Amino acid sequence: MLLLCASMAAQAQQVNPADTIPRKDSALIDELKESVLDNIPVVSLDENDLSDGSAQNVSSVLTAGRDPFFSAASYNFSAVRFRIRGYDADLFTTFMNGVPMENLDNGFTPWGAWGGLNDVMRNREVSFGLRPSTFAFGDIGSTTSIDTRASRQRAQTSFGYALSNRNYNHRWMLTHSTGLSKKGWAFTFSGSRRWADEGYVPGTYYNGWSYFAGIDKKIGQKHLLSLVAFGTPTENGRQSAATQEALDLAGSNYYNPSWGYQNGEKRNASVGRSHQPYLILTHDFRLNNNTTLVTAAGYSSGDRSTTALDWYNAPDPRPDYYRNLPSYYGADPYQQGQIEALWSADEGVRQINWQRLYDVNRASWETIKNANGKAGNNITGIRSRYILEERVINTRKTNANSVLNTRVSDHVDLSFGASYQSQNNHYYKAVNDLLGGTFYVDLNQFAERDFPDNTAANQNDLNRQNRILSEGDRFGYDYNMHVTRAAAWGQGVFKFSKVDLFASAEISDTRFWRAGNVRSGLFPNNSFGKSEVNDFLNYALKGGVTYKYNGRNYFYVNGAYLTRAPFFENAYVSPRTRDYVQDYLTDEVITSGEAGYVLNAPNLKLRLSGYVTRFENGLNVMSFYHDDYRNLVNYKLSNIDKLHYGGEFGFESKLTTTLSLTGAAAVGRYYYDSRQNAAITLDNSAAELDKDLIFSENFRVGSTPQEAYSLGLSYRSPNYWFVSLTGNYFDQMWLDFNPIRRNYLAVEGLEEKGEQWNNVVDQTMWEGQATVDFFGGYSWKLPRRYNVGDKPLFLVLNAGVNNLLNNKEIITGGYEQLRYDFETKNPGKFPPKVYYAYGLNYFVGATLRF
Fold first, then answer.
1. 20 to 30 A Cα–Cα from 630, which one of 28, 131, 201, 360?
2. Measured between alpha carbons, how far is 562 from 615 in angstroms, rounded to an integer?
3. Is the pLDDT of residue 116 over 50?
């Protein structure tokens, strides 16, 4: 029971799914914090609620105001990439104007697709954990509904400017909403730009635009039609993780190996671009005062891409490649010292040498015989050895969803819904820059090495052999992923004087397949055309009970059992080259329970809750260079089981009319609780090399703190200004482990539990870290002479300073390299690569509203 209570403290944890993934848009959090003190918790009480023994109805806990854990924790834990309950982002579902927004290939919500549109994205309804929802069956993390319809926006015009030293330095935002006119029309328009010539991390930059348009038309008293369109074309120079050795040599935890100087200017080799506009049409139909039907359809199409260096028969150009680091020359102290001195003293040594890449290309004069698959077609010119490639994913999504809500009586509410989702991802590479050369050739150099006597094996496209590539041409891989999901659900909520009950169920059908657009020389019979269709029928059940002791004290227990189809990216072994899937594609099974206590009082809101969640039959696929096999391999992982349990505590206490104290604590334990199965195949032949048993049992789930604490003090003046100071502490931060180091072969011949054995097997845990954050704001109604027409003009100022202590030792994420030297069994040869949290960083904004 203690474990259950501790684990139940987690329902409050289920906050905005944006807090479960790395946040690219820090300004979104600041905009939310701008209004946090305006959202004083509202307690909904009946007149008899304070009578402990009353037989009257007590208001449901589901409508009892803001969740205290959410209020206290959602703004403070994002700096360390805190994940609610340790859950992955695919366990948090988001709807916009009735349309499901998650990607079907991995279940993630693409929050960046509406970044910078803060003004029109603020109307949200969040169902935390296993609570019932009126707009979807829901997920076990949370289910969020964002309402961007024009008639639901506040009628006003606002213009804001912000200055920051985070991912971007400047942001402007303009929004105009008319509200609903007497003729039933409403319009909203919003736009913003965010940019930085260089962000917090050297070599990074940001250039993002955002646009939004919404039109509503009310037809009579029963119908409302809404149409919204939005998009966020964005380009940003990215940061790459680095080993601690490289960071120390560079003298900074923000060393970024992705850039170098070209003609005196910084140039980043890793540039992300994204533009995936959305169109959503929603129809609200009020059948009567007790029944509503909301039907929505959405469409999205666009690209997201990342550039990277590619090379053919040439040395690895990355400055932090392990052979370029001093540690590689440990057997020669003199050479090691020389390289260490160069790394420390010369910035050019530790960054990309663009000039060298151009020089190598321009010196590469070559003749390609039988080019483009035509006998006798010989082409001579400057063949690039190095290029900049662009890895593109073009996504087209079509979604439709309909939800009926009806109040049968004062005690019974029913909800029914049906949805259909279709997604087509087109994956390919294209030549972005030939770096001084005149052409590149579409060949697989790894296949050339492995099959020297097979003249067709190295062809990425057998239909166009020895294809000559110019900038913009596709090459390497080219395939489509198709996923469809159809679902139907129903829910009943039953409210009585002291008890609320709910039960819901969902059934769904998920299908996915691969369609190859080129015939690979390695897999001519399994690379081109449509593959077999994988079909999964799944179901989910959820229910709970709330005991309402009185209008202030509530106790609840909820539970869920569901099956999920595997995601596309975990099913196919190497979709770049072939249509092979895992040996045993199976559903993932999730069992979850939560319970807790809620106190809603005029001066104190408190939630203590806990949870237990078990995941069974998970799948994963990893591709990497295996030093023992000296080849690219694929690791097919199955039987991935996890156990997450823990508790959360959150409170908001009004000490005086102006002073408030808030706090939050999340204490969890997230374990892998099975030995995973691994099947190893060569990437170039699909030959199965080995089957391993991974010693994964009792390893921790990494990349999120398993303990997080926050305590804040806020002062709100009657003169419309406020300040807050918050301290945070994070602990139990584990690095996710590399499975190839946790098997028999990795420790064969080593003394069990000896020093070297432990170095190979042990999982890395980072030291606990603390931060202090400040936030303040002021709202000023300008004198009447500044009115815009008959509307008063308001000036709103806000400022946030995060990590006031300038703590630059906080590791927020990273990974163990998927390489291991089986000969020397030295894990230090390929050490982890990590990211550090920003030091002191700020955001200052000013907004005019009328």
1. 360
2. 10
3. yes
